[in-house]
Design goal:
By secondary structure, this protein is an alpha/beta fold. About 50% of the residues lie in helices and about 10% in strands. α1 packs parallel to α7, α3 runs parallel beside α5 and α4 packs across α6.
Length: about 200
């Protein structure tokens, strides 16, 4: 195994093409013979435990999602060449900001600062961060949250955080998926494959 694992994260609201992008990227990476681990959306698991999500997100639900994401990333780094993170910790904070905005709530500054500190410390660990641009013309799939106003607010909150913390993040749109996939693959080849023992 090549160490350390390369970490690629994609952030953004739903639906914005994250899953389709990751499927394409994962197939290409598998074809390169790399060990891939994909970390998914933690919100359904949080909800299953009883944490409020979406417009009712709280400090506690956000902190649990962040901690679980970080735990899974750390474990995945032990056995894999590339870790694909669908919704890194910055998403959890973006969704909390959106939830507080639409539900007219606040949390105290200490807790807010704590969550921001976690995000600022975590984002530099990603070799590549990709932010999706939400397309409101894309229909929300069955079983997904259909609150369009909240989806737009969440997208805006995530965009503001990404611009503040990692302004050089790649931007994925509905029209440039193949180009972004290729850019990521070039980075992987440069970073990982040149380190393989001959």
């Amino acid at each position: 195994m090549i160490s350390p694992a390369m970490k690629i994260a994609i952030t953004g609201t739903h639906p914005s093409g994250k899953s389709t992008f990751l499927q394409s990227l994962e197939q290409e990476l598998n074809d390169m013979g790399l060990r891939i681990h994909r970390i998914g959306d933690f919100a359904p698991r949080a909800q299953g435990l009883g944490f409020p999500i979406l417009t009712q997100h709280t400090y506690e639900s956000t902190l649990w999602i962040m901690a679980e994401c970080l735990r899974c990333e750390a474990e995945a780094s032990l056995q894999n060449d590339v870790i694909l993170v669908d919704r890194p910790v910055i998403d959890a904070l973006g969704y909390l900001h959106a939830a507080l905005q639409v539900s007219v709530r606040t949390i105290d500054s200490r807790r807010s600062g704590e969550l921001m500190t976690i995000v600022k410390a975590d984002i530099p660990d990603y070799d590549i961060l990709i932010r999706t641009a939400v397309d409101t013309d894309i229909a929300v799939g069955e079983g997904r949250d259909s609150d369009a106003a909240f989806r737009v607010e969440a997208a805006s909150s995530i965009e503001r955080l990404v611009n503040q913390i990692e302004p050089k993040a790649l931007i994925l749109t509905s029209g440039n998926r193949d180009k972004i996939v290729e850019r990521v693959l070039e980075s992987v080849r440069s970073r990982l494959l040149t380190l393989r023992p001959q």
